[in-house]
Protein backbone atom coordinates (compact mmCIF):
# COMPACT_ATOMS: atom_id res chain seq x y z
CA UNK A 1 0.00 0.00 0.00
CA UNK A 2 2.80 2.41 0.79
CA UNK A 3 4.09 2.39 -2.77
CA UNK A 4 0.92 3.90 -4.22
CA UNK A 5 0.94 7.72 -4.29
CA UNK A 6 -1.81 9.27 -2.20
CA UNK A 7 -2.50 6.22 -0.03
CA UNK A 8 -3.71 7.22 3.40
CA UNK A 9 -2.99 5.34 6.65
CA UNK A 10 -5.49 3.24 8.52
CA UNK A 11 -6.86 1.15 5.67
CA UNK A 12 -7.66 -2.40 6.72
CA UNK A 13 -10.29 -4.25 4.67
CA UNK A 14 -10.61 -6.98 7.32
CA UNK A 15 -12.04 -4.63 9.97
CA UNK A 16 -15.03 -3.04 8.23
CA UNK A 17 -17.23 -2.59 5.19
CA UNK A 18 -15.96 -2.25 1.67
CA UNK A 19 -15.37 1.29 0.47
CA UNK A 20 -16.63 1.77 -3.07
CA UNK A 21 -16.41 5.01 -5.03
CA UNK A 22 -18.26 5.83 -8.23
CA UNK A 23 -16.54 8.49 -10.31
CA UNK A 24 -18.68 10.17 -12.98
CA UNK A 25 -17.40 12.96 -15.22
CA UNK A 26 -19.76 15.93 -15.49
CA UNK A 27 -21.09 16.53 -19.03
CA UNK A 28 -17.97 14.83 -20.29
CA UNK A 29 -18.13 15.53 -24.03
CA UNK A 30 -18.94 19.20 -23.40
CA UNK A 31 -16.12 19.37 -20.84
CA UNK A 32 -13.70 18.00 -23.44
CA UNK A 33 -14.80 20.63 -25.95
CA UNK A 34 -14.12 23.30 -23.33
CA UNK A 35 -10.62 21.94 -22.84
CA UNK A 36 -10.06 22.48 -26.53
CA UNK A 37 -11.81 25.87 -26.58
CA UNK A 38 -11.55 27.59 -23.18
CA UNK A 39 -13.79 30.40 -24.46
CA UNK A 40 -16.72 27.96 -24.20
CA UNK A 41 -16.47 27.91 -20.39
CA UNK A 42 -19.78 29.01 -18.89
CA UNK A 43 -21.52 28.99 -22.28
CA UNK A 44 -24.27 26.60 -23.45
CA UNK A 45 -22.57 23.78 -25.36
CA UNK A 46 -24.35 21.04 -27.33
CA UNK A 47 -22.41 18.08 -28.71
CA UNK A 48 -24.15 16.04 -31.40
CA UNK A 49 -24.72 15.69 -35.10
CA UNK A 50 -27.15 16.87 -37.76
CA UNK A 51 -27.13 20.54 -36.82
CA UNK A 52 -25.45 21.87 -39.96
CA UNK A 53 -27.74 23.78 -42.38
CA UNK A 54 -29.57 21.35 -44.64
CA UNK A 55 -29.09 18.38 -42.34
CA UNK A 56 -31.51 18.53 -39.41
CA UNK A 57 -31.44 14.76 -38.82
CA UNK A 58 -29.42 13.70 -35.84
CA UNK A 59 -29.36 13.68 -32.08
CA UNK A 60 -27.79 15.34 -29.07
CA UNK A 61 -24.96 13.32 -27.50
CA UNK A 62 -24.61 15.59 -24.48
CA UNK A 63 -25.41 19.11 -23.41
CA UNK A 64 -23.74 21.33 -20.83
CA UNK A 65 -25.72 22.32 -17.76
CA UNK A 66 -26.19 25.79 -19.26
CA UNK A 67 -27.85 24.21 -22.31
CA UNK A 68 -29.97 21.90 -20.15
CA UNK A 69 -31.55 24.95 -18.54
CA UNK A 70 -33.18 25.53 -21.94
CA UNK A 71 -34.58 21.99 -22.15
CA UNK A 72 -31.75 20.40 -24.15
CA UNK A 73 -31.23 16.73 -23.24
CA UNK A 74 -29.08 13.84 -24.43
CA UNK A 75 -30.67 11.60 -27.10
CA UNK A 76 -32.99 14.48 -28.03
CA UNK A 77 -33.63 15.11 -31.73
CA UNK A 78 -31.24 17.77 -32.94
CA UNK A 79 -34.15 19.63 -34.56
CA UNK A 80 -35.80 19.97 -31.13
CA UNK A 81 -32.55 21.23 -29.63
CA UNK A 82 -32.18 23.83 -32.38
CA UNK A 83 -35.75 25.02 -31.84
CA UNK A 84 -35.11 25.51 -28.13
CA UNK A 85 -31.63 26.93 -28.45
CA UNK A 86 -30.36 27.91 -31.92
CA UNK A 87 -26.73 27.98 -32.94
CA UNK A 88 -24.81 31.00 -31.83
CA UNK A 89 -23.99 33.34 -34.69
CA UNK A 90 -21.42 36.12 -34.65
CA UNK A 91 -24.10 38.65 -35.61
CA UNK A 92 -26.25 38.12 -32.50
CA UNK A 93 -23.94 37.38 -29.56
CA UNK A 94 -26.49 38.60 -26.99
CA UNK A 95 -29.32 36.29 -28.05
CA UNK A 96 -29.98 33.01 -26.25
CA UNK A 97 -28.03 30.49 -28.29
CA UNK A 98 -25.64 27.59 -27.92
CA UNK A 99 -22.33 26.51 -29.35
CA UNK A 100 -22.85 23.27 -31.29
CA UNK A 101 -19.91 20.91 -31.79
CA UNK A 102 -19.56 17.53 -33.57
CA UNK A 103 -18.83 14.34 -31.65
CA UNK A 104 -15.08 13.63 -31.63
CA UNK A 105 -14.70 10.24 -29.98
CA UNK A 106 -10.96 9.97 -30.66
CA UNK A 107 -10.35 13.14 -28.69
CA UNK A 108 -12.75 12.16 -25.90
CA UNK A 109 -11.03 8.79 -25.53
CA UNK A 110 -7.69 10.57 -25.21
CA UNK A 111 -9.02 12.68 -22.34
CA UNK A 112 -10.75 9.65 -20.78
CA UNK A 113 -7.46 7.73 -20.84
CA UNK A 114 -5.88 10.53 -18.86
CA UNK A 115 -8.62 10.28 -16.23
CA UNK A 116 -8.41 6.48 -16.05
CA UNK A 117 -4.67 6.68 -15.58
CA UNK A 118 -5.19 8.72 -12.40
CA UNK A 119 -7.93 6.41 -11.15
CA UNK A 120 -5.68 3.37 -11.53
CA UNK A 121 -3.03 5.12 -9.46
CA UNK A 122 -5.32 5.96 -6.55
CA UNK A 123 -7.33 2.72 -6.36
CA UNK A 124 -6.39 -0.91 -5.99
CA UNK A 125 -9.16 -2.01 -8.36
CA UNK A 126 -10.90 0.02 -11.07
CA UNK A 127 -13.91 -1.02 -13.13
CA UNK A 128 -14.44 1.38 -16.04
CA UNK A 129 -18.04 1.02 -17.18
CA UNK A 130 -18.16 3.73 -19.85
CA UNK A 131 -16.00 6.46 -21.30
CA UNK A 132 -16.92 8.81 -18.46
CA UNK A 133 -17.53 6.70 -15.35
CA UNK A 134 -15.86 4.05 -13.24
CA UNK A 135 -16.12 2.21 -9.94
CA UNK A 136 -13.15 2.17 -7.58
CA UNK A 137 -12.50 -0.21 -4.68
CA UNK A 138 -10.82 1.99 -2.07
CA UNK A 139 -10.97 -0.53 0.77
CA UNK A 140 -7.20 -0.97 0.90
CA UNK A 141 -6.45 2.70 0.20
CA UNK A 142 -8.22 4.52 3.02
CA UNK A 143 -10.82 4.09 5.77
CA UNK A 144 -14.20 5.59 6.59
CA UNK A 145 -12.81 8.23 8.93
CA UNK A 146 -10.81 9.90 6.18
CA UNK A 147 -12.47 8.69 2.97
CA UNK A 148 -14.04 12.07 2.21
CA UNK A 149 -10.58 13.65 2.10
CA UNK A 150 -9.30 10.82 -0.08
CA UNK A 151 -12.23 11.22 -2.50
CA UNK A 152 -11.57 14.96 -2.66
CA UNK A 153 -7.93 14.18 -3.42
CA UNK A 154 -9.12 12.13 -6.42
CA UNK A 155 -11.40 14.93 -7.63
CA UNK A 156 -8.66 17.53 -7.27
CA UNK A 157 -6.11 15.43 -9.16
CA UNK A 158 -8.47 14.87 -12.09
CA UNK A 159 -9.36 18.55 -12.31
CA UNK A 160 -5.76 19.73 -11.89
CA UNK A 161 -4.05 17.23 -14.18
CA UNK A 162 -6.71 16.63 -16.82
CA UNK A 163 -8.92 19.70 -16.64
CA UNK A 164 -12.37 18.11 -16.26
CA UNK A 165 -14.57 17.91 -13.18
CA UNK A 166 -15.94 14.66 -11.80
CA UNK A 167 -18.62 13.91 -9.24
CA UNK A 168 -17.78 11.19 -6.72
CA UNK A 169 -20.08 9.06 -4.61
CA UNK A 170 -18.68 6.85 -1.85
CA UNK A 171 -20.64 4.04 -0.16
CA UNK A 172 -20.21 0.45 1.03
CA UNK A 173 -21.96 -0.88 -2.11
CA UNK A 174 -21.67 -0.28 -5.84
CA UNK A 175 -25.33 0.61 -6.30
CA UNK A 176 -25.33 3.15 -3.45
CA UNK A 177 -22.07 4.71 -4.69
CA UNK A 178 -23.64 5.14 -8.14
CA UNK A 179 -26.63 6.95 -6.67
CA UNK A 180 -24.44 9.05 -4.37
CA UNK A 181 -22.32 10.34 -7.28
CA UNK A 182 -25.47 11.80 -8.83
CA UNK A 183 -26.86 13.53 -5.74
CA UNK A 184 -24.84 16.73 -5.91
CA UNK A 185 -23.88 17.19 -9.56
CA UNK A 186 -21.95 18.91 -10.96
CA UNK A 187 -18.65 18.71 -9.11
CA UNK A 188 -20.29 16.79 -6.29
CA UNK A 189 -18.93 14.66 -3.45
CA UNK A 190 -21.34 12.57 -1.36
CA UNK A 191 -20.28 9.97 1.22
CA UNK A 192 -22.79 7.42 2.51
CA UNK A 193 -21.34 5.58 5.48
CA UNK A 194 -22.06 1.95 6.46
CA UNK A 195 -25.42 1.61 8.13
CA UNK A 196 -26.76 4.77 6.48
CA UNK A 197 -27.52 3.42 3.01
CA UNK A 198 -31.20 2.62 3.61
CA UNK A 199 -31.88 5.99 5.24
CA UNK A 200 -30.00 7.69 2.38
CA UNK A 201 -32.31 6.00 -0.12
CA UNK A 202 -35.52 6.42 1.89
CA UNK A 203 -36.83 9.74 0.49
CA UNK A 204 -35.38 9.44 -3.00
CA UNK A 205 -37.70 8.70 -5.93
CA UNK A 206 -37.83 5.01 -6.72
CA UNK A 207 -36.00 5.47 -10.04
CA UNK A 208 -32.96 6.66 -8.09
CA UNK A 209 -32.24 3.01 -7.21
CA UNK A 210 -29.65 1.77 -9.67
CA UNK A 211 -31.40 -0.56 -12.13
CA UNK A 212 -34.89 0.99 -11.89
CA UNK A 213 -35.62 2.43 -15.32
CA UNK A 214 -38.62 4.52 -16.43
CA UNK A 215 -40.81 1.52 -17.27
CA UNK A 216 -40.10 -0.28 -13.98
CA UNK A 217 -40.64 2.97 -12.07
CA UNK A 218 -44.02 3.45 -13.73
CA UNK A 219 -45.05 -0.11 -12.89
CA UNK A 220 -43.91 0.31 -9.29
CA UNK A 221 -45.86 3.55 -8.91
CA UNK A 222 -49.00 1.77 -10.05
CA UNK A 223 -48.56 -0.33 -6.89
CA UNK A 224 -47.91 2.74 -4.69
CA UNK A 225 -44.16 2.13 -4.59
CA UNK A 226 -43.13 5.73 -5.13
CA UNK A 227 -39.89 6.20 -3.19
CA UNK A 228 -36.81 4.08 -2.69
CA UNK A 229 -38.00 3.74 0.90
CA UNK A 230 -41.23 2.18 -0.36
CA UNK A 231 -39.18 -0.22 -2.45
CA UNK A 232 -37.06 -1.16 0.57
CA UNK A 233 -40.22 -1.87 2.57
CA UNK A 234 -41.82 -3.98 -0.19
CA UNK A 235 -41.97 -7.75 0.26
CA UNK A 236 -39.15 -9.37 -1.70
CA UNK A 237 -41.32 -12.30 -2.77
CA UNK A 238 -43.93 -9.88 -4.11
CA UNK A 239 -41.23 -8.01 -6.05
CA UNK A 240 -39.98 -11.29 -7.48
CA UNK A 241 -43.53 -12.14 -8.54
CA UNK A 242 -43.90 -8.82 -10.32
CA UNK A 243 -40.44 -8.43 -11.85
CA UNK A 244 -38.68 -11.78 -11.49
CA UNK A 245 -35.30 -12.17 -9.82
CA UNK A 246 -34.46 -8.62 -10.86
CA UNK A 247 -37.27 -7.32 -8.64
CA UNK A 248 -35.81 -9.09 -5.62
CA UNK A 249 -32.39 -7.63 -6.41
CA UNK A 250 -33.79 -4.09 -6.69
CA UNK A 251 -35.52 -4.47 -3.32
CA UNK A 252 -32.27 -5.54 -1.73
CA UNK A 253 -30.39 -2.60 -3.23
CA UNK A 254 -32.96 -0.20 -1.77
CA UNK A 255 -32.22 -1.80 1.61
CA UNK A 256 -28.49 -1.23 1.17
CA UNK A 257 -27.71 -4.83 0.26
CA UNK A 258 -25.50 -5.27 -2.80
CA UNK A 259 -22.86 -8.03 -2.61
CA UNK A 260 -21.27 -7.21 -5.96
CA UNK A 261 -17.55 -6.53 -5.87
CA UNK A 262 -15.65 -4.08 -8.02
CA UNK A 263 -14.03 -6.20 -10.71
CA UNK A 264 -11.97 -4.78 -13.56
CA UNK A 265 -13.20 -5.23 -17.10
CA UNK A 266 -10.34 -6.44 -19.25
CA UNK A 267 -6.78 -5.19 -18.93
CA UNK A 268 -5.51 -1.65 -19.44
CA UNK A 269 -4.27 -0.87 -22.94
CA UNK A 270 -1.64 1.55 -21.71
CA UNK A 271 0.03 3.08 -18.65
CA UNK A 272 0.67 6.79 -18.51
CA UNK A 273 1.51 9.66 -16.18
CA UNK A 274 0.98 13.35 -16.85
CA UNK A 275 1.85 16.57 -15.10
CA UNK A 276 0.77 20.15 -15.69
CA UNK A 277 2.89 23.22 -15.04
CA UNK A 278 1.45 26.11 -12.98
CA UNK A 279 1.75 28.18 -16.14
CA UNK A 280 3.06 27.48 -19.63
CA UNK A 281 6.86 27.32 -19.81
CA UNK A 282 9.46 27.21 -22.58
CA UNK A 283 12.30 26.30 -20.21
CA UNK A 284 13.36 23.06 -21.86
CA UNK A 285 15.44 21.86 -18.92
CA UNK A 286 12.40 22.17 -16.66
CA UNK A 287 10.26 20.32 -19.20
CA UNK A 288 12.93 17.67 -19.70
CA UNK A 289 13.28 17.09 -15.96
CA UNK A 290 9.54 16.63 -15.60
CA UNK A 291 9.48 14.05 -18.41
CA UNK A 292 12.31 12.14 -16.70
CA UNK A 293 10.26 11.98 -13.50
CA UNK A 294 7.16 10.83 -15.36
CA UNK A 295 9.11 8.18 -17.29
CA UNK A 296 10.45 6.77 -14.02
CA UNK A 297 6.94 6.65 -12.55
CA UNK A 298 5.52 4.86 -15.60
CA UNK A 299 8.40 2.38 -15.63
CA UNK A 300 7.91 1.68 -11.92
CA UNK A 301 4.21 1.08 -12.37
CA UNK A 302 4.76 -1.30 -15.28
CA UNK A 303 7.40 -3.21 -13.30
CA UNK A 304 5.15 -3.52 -10.24
CA UNK A 305 2.41 -4.94 -12.46
CA UNK A 306 4.84 -7.31 -14.21
CA UNK A 307 3.97 -5.75 -17.56
CA UNK A 308 6.15 -5.44 -20.64
CA UNK A 309 5.60 -2.68 -23.21
CA UNK A 310 6.40 -2.30 -26.87
CA UNK A 311 5.46 1.33 -27.53
CA UNK A 312 6.80 4.43 -25.78
CA UNK A 313 5.31 7.86 -26.27
CA UNK A 314 5.20 11.42 -25.01
CA UNK A 315 2.40 13.96 -24.90
CA UNK A 316 3.00 17.70 -25.07
CA UNK A 317 0.15 20.14 -24.56
CA UNK A 318 0.62 23.68 -25.84
CA UNK A 319 -1.61 26.54 -24.67
CA UNK A 320 -4.53 26.67 -24.57
CA UNK A 321 -5.02 22.90 -25.05
CA UNK A 322 -3.38 21.86 -28.30
CA UNK A 323 -2.41 18.21 -27.92
CA UNK A 324 0.69 16.85 -29.63
CA UNK A 325 1.75 13.23 -29.19
CA UNK A 326 4.64 11.21 -30.52
CA UNK A 327 5.41 7.52 -30.13
CA UNK A 328 8.04 4.98 -31.05
CA UNK A 329 7.50 1.25 -31.45
CA UNK A 330 10.21 -1.20 -30.38
CA UNK A 331 11.04 -4.55 -32.04
CA UNK A 332 9.69 -6.44 -29.04
CA UNK A 333 8.20 -5.99 -25.56
CA UNK A 334 10.58 -4.80 -22.85
CA UNK A 335 10.84 -3.85 -19.20
CA UNK A 336 13.63 -1.29 -19.39
CA UNK A 337 13.33 1.97 -17.40
CA UNK A 338 16.51 3.42 -18.89
CA UNK A 339 15.32 2.80 -22.44
CA UNK A 340 11.91 4.24 -21.62
CA UNK A 341 13.49 7.46 -20.36
CA UNK A 342 15.90 7.67 -23.30
CA UNK A 343 13.17 7.27 -25.92
CA UNK A 344 10.81 9.69 -24.16
CA UNK A 345 13.51 12.38 -23.98
CA UNK A 346 14.45 11.81 -27.60
CA UNK A 347 10.82 12.24 -28.70
CA UNK A 348 10.62 15.39 -26.59
CA UNK A 349 13.44 17.16 -28.44
CA UNK A 350 11.08 18.11 -31.26
CA UNK A 351 9.35 20.51 -28.86
CA UNK A 352 12.40 22.42 -27.66
CA UNK A 353 11.58 26.12 -27.55
CA UNK A 354 7.82 25.51 -27.58
CA UNK A 355 5.67 26.85 -24.70
CA UNK A 356 4.32 23.84 -22.84
CA UNK A 357 1.32 23.61 -20.51
CA UNK A 358 1.45 19.89 -19.71
CA UNK A 359 3.61 16.85 -20.49
CA UNK A 360 2.99 13.14 -20.27
CA UNK A 361 4.72 9.79 -20.81
CA UNK A 362 2.91 6.68 -22.00
CA UNK A 363 3.67 3.04 -22.71
CA UNK A 364 1.36 0.86 -24.80
CA UNK A 365 1.18 -2.48 -26.65
CA UNK A 366 1.32 -4.07 -23.22
CA UNK A 367 2.18 -7.72 -22.61
CA UNK A 368 0.86 -9.28 -19.41
CA UNK A 369 2.07 -12.81 -20.02
CA UNK A 370 5.52 -13.86 -18.83
CA UNK A 371 7.80 -13.58 -21.81
CA UNK A 372 11.45 -13.23 -22.64
CA UNK A 373 12.54 -9.71 -23.44
CA UNK A 374 13.59 -8.91 -26.93
CA UNK A 375 17.24 -8.36 -27.68
CA UNK A 376 17.47 -4.65 -28.45
CA UNK A 377 21.10 -4.73 -29.46
CA UNK A 378 20.16 -4.32 -33.09
CA UNK A 379 17.52 -1.65 -32.46
CA UNK A 380 18.08 1.40 -34.65
CA UNK A 381 16.26 4.59 -35.50
CA UNK A 382 15.18 3.03 -38.78
CA UNK A 383 13.68 0.02 -36.99
CA UNK A 384 11.62 2.18 -34.66
CA UNK A 385 10.58 5.08 -36.79
CA UNK A 386 8.56 7.71 -35.06
CA UNK A 387 5.07 8.68 -36.10
CA UNK A 388 2.56 11.20 -35.03
CA UNK A 389 -0.50 9.87 -33.13
CA UNK A 390 -2.95 12.69 -32.85
CA UNK A 391 -1.93 16.30 -33.25
CA UNK A 392 -4.44 19.01 -32.36
CA UNK A 393 -7.86 17.43 -32.78
CA UNK A 394 -9.47 20.78 -33.48
CA UNK A 395 -12.18 20.61 -36.11
CA UNK A 396 -12.41 16.84 -36.50
CA UNK A 397 -15.86 15.32 -36.46
CA UNK A 398 -17.46 11.89 -36.59
CA UNK A 399 -19.77 10.56 -39.28
CA UNK A 400 -21.91 8.67 -36.79
CA UNK A 401 -22.89 9.32 -33.22
CA UNK A 402 -22.40 5.85 -31.81
CA UNK A 403 -23.55 5.36 -28.23
CA UNK A 404 -24.81 8.34 -26.28
CA UNK A 405 -22.72 9.43 -23.34
CA UNK A 406 -23.94 7.50 -20.31
CA UNK A 407 -25.46 9.56 -17.55
CA UNK A 408 -26.22 12.71 -19.51
CA UNK A 409 -29.89 12.66 -18.59
CA UNK A 410 -28.96 13.29 -14.95
Explain this structure:
With 410 residues, the chain is α+β, with helices and mostly antiparallel strands. It has three domains: 16-27 and 108-254, Reverse transcriptase/Diguanylate cyclase domain (Alpha-Beta Plaits, 2-Layer Sandwich); 29-103, MutS, DNA mismatch repair protein, domain I (3-Layer(aba) Sandwich); 270-391, DNA polymerase, Y-family, little finger domain (Dna Ligase, domain 1), CATH 3.30.1490.100. It is 33% helix and 21% strand. It is built from 14 helices and 13 strands. The chain has helices at residues 28-36, 65-68, 78-84, 105-122, 147-161, 174-181, 197-202, 214-221, 228-233, 236-243, 245-254, 284-304, 337-348, 381-384; strands at residues 20-25, 45-48, 60-63, 99-102, 125-130, 133-137, 166-171, 189-191, 270-281, 309-318, 322-334, 356-364, 386-391. The strands form three sheets. A five-stranded mixed beta sheet has the order 5-6-1-7-8. It has a five-stranded antiparallel beta sheet with strand order 9-12-10-11-13, with helices on both faces. A three-stranded mixed beta sheet has the order 3-2-4. Helix 6 (174-181) links the parallel strand 7 (166-171) and strand 8 (189-191). Helix 4 packs antiparallel against helix 5, helix 10 crosses helix 11 and helix 12 (284-304) runs antiparallel to helix 13. The longest helix is centred in the C-terminal third of the chain and has 21 residues, at 284-304. Mean pLDDT is 82; it is low at 1-16 and 370-410.
